[in-house]
């Protein structure tokens, strides 16, 4: 068993553990819903790293990186992210290529962690074989709370036992029997207790260790917040995010030692050890042994790589365009309709090794207020009991039906106005982005028609114009995309003055710059992409900017960032981060981008323009891997000549969470409304900027 004292080392680097001889360690756990992390590791480490697999993955990743807009910026990001982003991915790939690994799993973990260090939720290398094949859990999610004196501390979530009893009902008894007798073998006795030590060290040692590897957001504060449990409005209801302490994408940790405050015993505290357990994920394919696990989960499928859209039977083309890709599991958005895949609405969405949570927020914490008409999927509207504050809880900028979603947002906001709302809270906690034009549309209907919302409610953008991208654009200009199916086709883009691009010639127009001492090239500036909207916009804004507040736990990215940044910087809308650490500058959003995509989409562009045999083109993947990239990068608002990605997104207020309101959306909204809209000073005085 992994020693408690090296728990942090286990999450910081792949471990090499002794395993008992077994002819097939995967057969040992096959068909079992729950397993020990050590047994899952033995199974995953039983696959040797074949040279052809290693070389294939590295070549694909290396040759896809030229389409990732941020790769040279990420070698050393400018302030305020200079201490957070400083990773040379090409150098990492050289190191990985020269490194020997005992298993394919260890190779993947090194690749996964290297890409996580760029702290970019669009850019990553994921595997359906190893990432969240099993999800490793502990039934004790943590929260960061502020007490009556204003002091912060780490606590076991007050609702921990409720979540565990419902979500882990078939495994709770395993954990309960291991609890010290002082807790009477009840998880309920631990809920709400203050955590004094994690593995013998102050809790924030573990928080910081997680912040160094979890990735996804440039802001260190947001990566700290990822350690703790939180909530989100999901497509089917309210969801509970266990946080990175209690939910792990890889089976690398066996147990944890906790010291908790417990006044009922001599000394006032109790130290105990509790094991993690790994649960076979619902999206993973069943197996009976190592070979079947590999065949069903690890090898490339017919959706792993791209296709030539002009050399595929019509029925297969329709299937390819309408079915979700393997990366959909890792996209931080709900499933969308096949018709929306076919229409290819542009998306900007985070990826993560842990899929969206399917754990339910306990009923007593979920909003009990009546929903306003217009509520649909990830968007739910409420009127608070003050009869003046409306709330839009928005868990994603994607929903199953794009057209219905856009109309629902309008009807919901209009419903709030009809109900008497004079001010608006938009809660985007754990919103990983989604449709770009939904973000622009929401900005437009809240604020109304003005130069900051029409024709461009979002950010101008650019994309990398490397040699292979130039060749794709040239082939399209010569007629290689007659049905206008490809993203490099200029018919879907406008120029800096928001005029349609010409369909002939090289629209990609290579503009050379130097980034961190490296020559790079980008396209001309691209303008708005959403007008005319699919829906009829109101003639006037529905809420005043000074009566609108955006609330989150900082985990707002991609299209959520596009919305929040333009609302904050163009309109002056105030931003509130809930539950951040005192004294740490909180950021209201993270990864910005402009449009995210993946290897298989780029591969389709390459194959459809008959460039697959070019020396710069990546080969087909042999394994069930996904590579995500930022394809377009948005220009900034404060500095319009540089990417918004590296400009400040400091929140106006760091709002404290207490035991009375933590993970209770309505209680949080009421507290924020009372503090912000009535110009009262926050209950606790740790704010990032001036009190509002």
UniProtKB/TrEMBL annotation:
SUPFAM superfamilies assigned to the protein according to its UniProt record, in alphabetical order: ClpP/crotonase
Xref: InterPro entries: ClpP/crotonase-like_dom_sf, S41A_metabolite_peptidase
Keyword Signal among record annotations: yes
Domain of life: Eukaryota
Biological source species: Ephemerocybe angulata
Signal sequence residues: 1-18
Record-given protein name: Tail specific protease domain-containing protein
Gene3D superfamilies hit by this protein: 2-enoyl-CoA Hydratase, Chain A, domain 1
Database matches in PANTHER family: PEPTIDASE S41 FAMILY PROTEIN, RHODANESE DOMAIN-CONTAINING PROTEIN
Annotated keywords: Signal
